[in-house]
Amino acid sequence: MANQNAAPFSLSKLALLLPLLQGHDWQKTVEEQLAGGGYRYTLGRVGAMDLMKVVAAVETAAKRNRLIDEEQYREVHALYHAIIEAIQGVGRGTMQFGEILRTVGLTFAVVRGPMFPQGAEPGDWIAVCLYGTIGAPRKGFEHEVLGFGINHV
Amino acid sequence: MANQNAAPFSLSKLALLLPLLQGHDWQKTVEEQLAGGGYRYTLGRVGAMDLMKVVAAVETAAKRNRLIDEEQYREVHALYHAIIEAIQGVGRGTMQFGEILRTVGLTFAVVRGPMFPQGAEPGDWIAVCLYGTIGAPRKGFEHEVLGFGINHV
Amino acid sequence: MANQNAAPFSLSKLALLLPLLQGHDWQKTVEEQLAGGGYRYTLGRVGAMDLMKVVAAVETAAKRNRLIDEEQYREVHALYHAIIEAIQGVGRGTMQFGEILRTVGLTFAVVRGPMFPQGAEPGDWIAVCLYGTIGAPRKGFEHEVLGFGINHV
Amino acid sequence: MANQNAAPFSLSKLALLLPLLQGHDWQKTVEEQLAGGGYRYTLGRVGAMDLMKVVAAVETAAKRNRLIDEEQYREVHALYHAIIEAIQGVGRGTMQFGEILRTVGLTFAVVRGPMFPQGAEPGDWIAVCLYGTIGAPRKGFEHEVLGFGINHV
Amino acid sequence: MANQNAAPFSLSKLALLLPLLQGHDWQKTVEEQLAGGGYRYTLGRVGAMDLMKVVAAVETAAKRNRLIDEEQYREVHALYHAIIEAIQGVGRGTMQFGEILRTVGLTFAVVRGPMFPQGAEPGDWIAVCLYGTIGAPRKGFEHEVLGFGINHV
Amino acid sequence: MANQNAAPFSLSKLALLLPLLQGHDWQKTVEEQLAGGGYRYTLGRVGAMDLMKVVAAVETAAKRNRLIDEEQYREVHALYHAIIEAIQGVGRGTMQFGEILRTVGLTFAVVRGPMFPQGAEPGDWIAVCLYGTIGAPRKGFEHEVLGFGINHV
Ligand SMILES: [Mg+2]
Ligand SMILES: [Mg+2]
Ligand SMILES: [Mg+2]
Ligand SMILES: [Mg+2]
Ligand SMILES: [Mg+2]
Ligand SMILES: [Mg+2]
């Protein structure tokens, strides 16, 4: 057993590690903590030059996996602003992809639950992590990128 | 032994995982890969309301640990823009901390080397990860944040 | 008679109140002050995911109602920058609607004249107010928004 | 009685009209609707070249008047982002005042409650309106400005 | 005589060439065209980590040299926005210098007059050019930069 | 012979003057210095409402004229960020053209080589200058604009 004596990860670290460790055998530990901590989460992929598709992919995955109640505008609003914040980290200065001739290939995670596993404060938070590549629309002409956003639900 | 059959991490993942896993027993594996891949790196901490201090702390640590040749402007320039990109992810929309009454407590990593451990392409890249908290200048009134930047050296 | 002892509104307040009070019986008073102060103004509506349509709708309405002389570039330029400023208030951080999967339904006012009804300073100013809703392209999943811009003509 | 047959104002309109109508006899009607709708609100003033003072003034007034529970980070977080959005409308492109040699004199309103007076959706929203002048630090060398932000609490 | 058969420069080109050609013998030709075209202009220098000093230096030079009537707010407003636009070109993404540990050494020109020497359209325009270096506060660790803004007066 | 006793221009000045002096007889001197200093350069034109076309036009011209090795991602990356910086100067606050109903007609120059003709520091820099007009999609309803970016290769 690997991380016996390590403290459990926070909501944000879980959201960050989930796409970062995809395909790595540590990911199982992250998923165990997500399940054990009562977190709701989703992991997906989206590749696009069109920013709108990125927003839509994350939103749709979060709704389909019941991370938010899609009939409550305030929950949709909370998720939306977390997504926008994550995109700002991906864009680094401007939220534009295709318009400035760059494309993204992103793995995304959305996690909802208490900020800390043993959190005493009431109420959920929702974190969005977008990790992948950004660059020219040509294989290998890209570098990695990560954007992270979080909001109270 | 944990991640036997996992592929080695890229430069960017190493830079991202280093501060995320601080204090966790997985960090040793990350450090082993950094050493084994011939990467130069540094891990440090800075807390501030003053953005200038964040830039200076990362720059100083990278120079002192010989990640860049501080006598070559082009190396300083490469690092500088990577830091600014990382700060954009932390700021999410505006690079301001104290001016808008928020403070940051950040662990930072800077990693220099080939983009991939077995990279065939010549030339180094430098990645900067800032991970920590942002919020009101009051303990517990903050959430996590992560910014990532990368540049060719 | 309602606001007997109140000072007349400034150009900016008139532009702000016109869309805010649409359908309210106070609007008549606002329109009386607009007419009495020699102001030229227009009130219109535009709903779009496409930012370009918002700019075009306001510009077209202002030209058609002779708020600016559309044969003089400097007048067109003055209006244009006032519109852009107003859109920045609507966008709050980024001037994007459809690209980030949000739609707007806006009532807009453009008012031209002296900054204050009894203004002694020569020369006109032009103010643009955009008021309405912004949100997901789904009825009720939106909140209100207001952007305001002003320029010398 | 003036606006007998007008529909009651939304939370956002109340927040917008409160500083816009300061000193005008319509303001009493706005305050009656605020009280009658069970809204919590505050109206204050701040003049500064220093952005931090604007954030602090609004935050302090909202806490002192119990619009938010200052012991709950999620409530503080909700207010904070609403303030930042409002400042973006004031800054129109950049959240800077003194740094670019401009000063603001603002009347601000913060309103908390349901989005609409007869709102059926559960949960509160908090709206921030900043209205006043921006310009050179010289009397009369300024124009009006308005910024508006809103968030779910 | 050099540029016999070249068309005279526009207002914008004159503003751009003036600091670019400082110390070069072509500058005399530029100054002759400025004088011959009835343009009012000023050329100055400012070095700073503090953005406010840059704005102030350009504003002060323009007022002292009577490019604008400093008693008319609309003229001050026109100049102000032209300066801000020029600074955006210098900052490339953010209007910050010292906050992000960079310093500027700028030569600036402000030119007022018709957009084109034989301009038929009534009314003046004012153009601001900032040219110089930006970089670390260490000699030689900087690169060149140019920002340009223009507005109707 | 005109500028006998003037110091040769820097890489950045050459990039700036090349489009500014197009059609002027001084341009020959600029081209002589470019050739004499061992610089690689290209001069082109692009008119568009679509930002992507501007990025593509500059990138394509630089590749076709062998300013960068298009098989090396780090060279493509260096050029890309220089282009983006130049566009920020053109956009002054937002990198949008058609979306906000403005069109650009740009002459662009890309220059690669040492920062200074007698530069002792090893390694090339690449500078991008975009000069032309921006405005409404109607002849004469536009003003001049210049954006400049530079990066280490
Ligand atoms: Mg936050
Ligand atoms: Mg990059
Ligand atoms: Mg203004
Ligand atoms: Mg919102
Ligand atoms: Mg303009
Ligand atoms: Mg640079």
TrEMBL record, chains A, B, C, D, E, F:
Signal peptide: none
Domain of life where this protein originates: Bacteria
Annotated keywords: Activator, RNA-binding, Transcription, Transcription regulation
Stored Gene3D superfamilies: Hut operon regulatory protein HutP (3.40.1510.10)
Coiled coil (UniProt feature): none
InterPro entries associated with the record: Regulatory_HutP, Regulatory_HutP_sf
Subunit structure: Homohexamer.
Official protein name in the record: Hut operon positive regulatory protein
